[in-house]
Design brief:
Low-confidence stretches: none
Number of domains: 1
Radius of gyration: 15 Å
Shape: globular
Helix content: 40-55%
Structural class: alpha+beta
Mean pLDDT: 87
Largest sheet: 5 strands, antiparallel
Length: about 140
């Protein structure tokens, strides 16, 4: 819990990215590090199913997510808590989920760009992203 709104923090990150020296790569790395810290203890307990890893990541974020797996792609959609997300082009969620899956399950994953060369797309009030899966 924080004494300021999540929107405020998101806007600060957006300004750092747009006008100063914060890069999308740094945000991706920070997101992966956060997942490592968040799931370090759970990872020591042993590997879980892909479903359980996704559920734990979603629960940690306090989000509502739907997902489907087709061949080697995992498609995740999240209902954001606010209508307009200021972090669209630098969204950390694909990297957070990817690292959670890598740590908690037998699967390995990495975010893949859409046909529009973006990691996250928005439609019908939801955010969508895809992860490439390998292993099992």
């Amino acid at each position: 819990m924080t004494c300021i709104s999540e929107d405020f923090l998101a806007r600060i990150i957006s300004i750092l990215y747009q006008k100063l020296t914060l890069s999308a790569g740094q945000i991706a790395i920070a997101s992966r590090v956060l997942a490592q810290e968040a799931f370090e203890e759970k990872a020591k307990e042993g590997k879980r199913s892909l479903d359980e890893a996704i559920r734990l990541a979603t629960h940690y974020l306090g989000a509502s997510a739907e997902y489907s797996k087709e061949n080697d792609e995992l498609k995740i959609s999240i209902s954001p808590k606010q209508n307009v997300c200021p972090l669209r082009e630098i969204c950390p969620l694909p990297f957070f989920y990817s690292e959670a899956i890598n740590l908690l399950s037998e699967w390995k994953s990495y975010p893949i760009r859409s046909s529009n060369n973006k990691f996250v797309e928005t439609s019908s009030g939801k955010c969508f992203f895809q992860l490439r899966l390998y292993g099992d």
